[in-house]
Amino acid sequence: xxxxxxxxxxxxxVPTVDEARKVFHLLRASTGMFKIGSQLFTAAxxxxxxxxxxxxxxxxxxxxFHDIPNTVAAASAEAVRLGVSLFNIHAAGGxxxxxxxxxxxxxxxxxxxxLRPRLLAVTVLxxxxxxxxxxxxxxxxxxxxVLRLAALAASCGVDGVVASGHEIEALRRTIQSKDFLVVTxxxxxxxxxxxxxxxxxxxxxxxxxxxxRAGADHIVMGRQIVxxxxxxxxxxxxxxxxEGA
Length: 245
Ligand code: C5P
Hints:
Layout: H1 2-7, E1 8-11, H2 17-27, E2 33-37, H3 38-44, H4 46-54, E3 58-65, H5 69-82, E4 86-90, H6 95-111, E5 118-122, H7 130-135, H8 142-155, E6 160-162, H9 168-174, E7 181-184, H10 190-199, H11 208-214, E8 218-221, H12 223-226, H13 231-243
Parallel strand pairs: 1-2, 1-8, 2-3, 3-4, 4-5, 5-6, 6-7, 7-8
Helix pairs in contact: 5-6, 11-13
The structure holds cytidine-5'-monophosphate.
């Protein structure tokens, strides 16, 4: 169970500290890591991150930094000081921004004797398809763009990527380092994967088992767990599916 538990990251996509605390306390025993993204961070600020880290849990700070290199480097240093285990930047911010983020992360951790979080790059959001890319002037298939940005991220000292399950195999072929992390959102429980894939905004979905079999180091799940009538039972279903791997 522990292996499966360590693979699961639950997205605390809720609007208030009270709701975040409620979900955290319900799920902390069965969940490896909690993701705090722009919704909760904007509503509750860094204190909710400190609270969860202080309670002994791991946090993935999902703020997808994308700014000038100096600003992203400074924000990365602050992510280290918050004590998170994982945080991310947008690969589309370019190589200098990514390199400066990786350097600031390593330097701050070494200088201040803190844990060095692993830094992930977001390549192409899993909500984006070829049409969405083309509207932004990127005339490439999502997978081509994912691989291009992932290779660039790896060359800048970034530890891994956030990527759809469908891209993992090609990513593993493109990036040789076994330590390169792949974190996969867009995961849907088996019984609902087909129906939800159509209705939801995640255009490229996989089940937990498929994602882990494909080589995801971690899977990220939000609404299907946090929005479930029984979040504990939902996590147990996910862990049971992963154990099948
Ligand atoms: O509710 P759902 O399971 O779709 O939540 C997925 C989570 O993963 C959300 O918090 C979303 O912000 C995040 N995410 C994503 N695609 C990425 C990066 C992060 O869906 N490429």
